[in-house]
Design a protein that fits this description.
The structure holds 2 protein chains of 2 kinds. Chain A is an alpha/beta fold. Chain A is 39% helix and 27% strand. Chain B has one domain. The chains are: A alpha/beta, B mainly alpha.
Amino acid sequence: MIIDLENLSVQFGQQQILDGVTVQFVGGAMGLLGPNGAGKTTLLKTLLGFIDPVSGGGKVLGFDVRSQQLAIRQKIGYMPENDCHIPGMNGVTFVAYAGQLAGMKPKDALQRAHEILFYVGLGEARYRNLETYSAGMKQRIKLAQSLVHDPELIFLDEPTNGLDPRGRIEMLDLVRDISTSKSINVILSSHLLPDVEWVCGDAAVIHKGRLLASGKIEDLKRGLGAAFECRIKGDPHAFMEKLQSLGCQCSLGDDGVMRIQMKDGLGSQSLLHVASEQRVQVRHLVPLKQSLEDVFLQVIGESNADS
Amino acid sequence: MPIHDLGYRHWAGEWTSHPYRWWVITRQGIRMLVQKKRFLVLMILSAIPFVVRSVMIYITTLVGDSARRISLLTINAKFFEDFLSQQMFFTFLIAIYAGAGLVANDLKANALQIYLSKPITRRDYMLGKLGVLVFFLALPTLVPGLLLFLLAVLFQSDLTFLRENYWVLASILGYSLVIVLTYALIVLALSSMTQSSRFAGISFAAVFFFSQILYGILSQILRTTQVAWVSIGNNLSQVGDLLFRHAPQYRSPAWVSVVILAALVAGSAWIVHRRVQAVEVVS
């Protein structure tokens, strides 16, 4: 088990930032999803030992998050969300220094820094001062410093922030390579759902400090039930009302096309049955491929409705 | 195989032991400062008084007993205390140059997250940064102080000087450490309170000048030097006099100066420890 958290809660003053988070992560790549301010970064920082939980606890790589923070940090890498570097250094000095801070000998750290900088695509820029790096290069150097000591697990906090489309794809390919070919476990925190879907096999959705859903992305999608794009001849509102009374979610677009999220257990037969009951003609019915965004919107919607 | 063909490889080398992890920070800090030419010039200038005093010791040896009539050429405890007090001008400048940006620049560049995401504690970080300052502040104080004492012993034809002044060695060590720790921790504390190294440097200078001006005003109004404890510089002088067994320069009790300097050092260390956080919690 890479991460095993039980009822983890974090408070800043009177404000509850994480509320009883219980999650397990067996390995591979897991996406930490949630809107801005959901508590994703706080969760990562708690796992790193930067913040003490007020209750609950757990283990990262078998080490206790409350008492074995140094042992955890020895085995993990962290790529922070915001721009950060050590002033006055060039790329190779910075990464080698990060290696030494992690406990590598200077010679080993320097050699490793060269290797990692080539791996992340900064080989040609390694002797340039960090202050002259572009946004994309700064993201890559942050990734390099998190990898230099060969961690078993890396925390990537919004790694595609500020990247152009090409840079974003390159970064995601790099992260995917790390998790699939290099056997390094990845926790990717992002509010960009396609990024998570592209890289991760697992996902955990956090909203207002609470864990709303977690598991394999395919399982989460399957749990949603079928979805259809549908156009009818007749009164769409009565048709939608009937579907909603059965627990389905419907929305009507400007072009008259409805998007119907069926309740778990209901399928196209049920939809056609309702159409028949409401005396409307189904002119167009196409099953929709579920995305992580659908999962996200559903669990966030349910959470908002509950509160 | 060329490095760029290697790709990512797992690493299975040896780790260094954790208790010395702070030394990585100190070593890097020293390396970065010695690359600055202006700083090197300042360090070289700070060695001039040492050269002058070495020559004085040599002349005293040449002149012999008649040198005792010239107070400037008398090699005794006062000679070493005066040297260290004189060096406070350079330690002041070096503390500003080397120390003002030590934490402030890391705060500005969000570097604390990098440091503290590694197996480094806040104490390691503090010790590492303090180590940089102790190194550069000991160079114009402790190191030349001990060397001057060694020269004074070596230039004598017998061991009389050593027999009479052996305790001065401990005084040099003690006074240097008091000066170094006071300057180092105050400048570190001010550096940790801002993201601007310039502001930290100005604040450091202001703290020393303001306390001296305050002493000047109070001593004029009250017509006594009993208020010397309000000035950091005066407190250092009082402790120096205590360690070198001289009558104190000011009428304020020496123990008050010891307490004030101890409180300043402890308070500064507390501020740095509080300010060095990987997470800024806004309540």
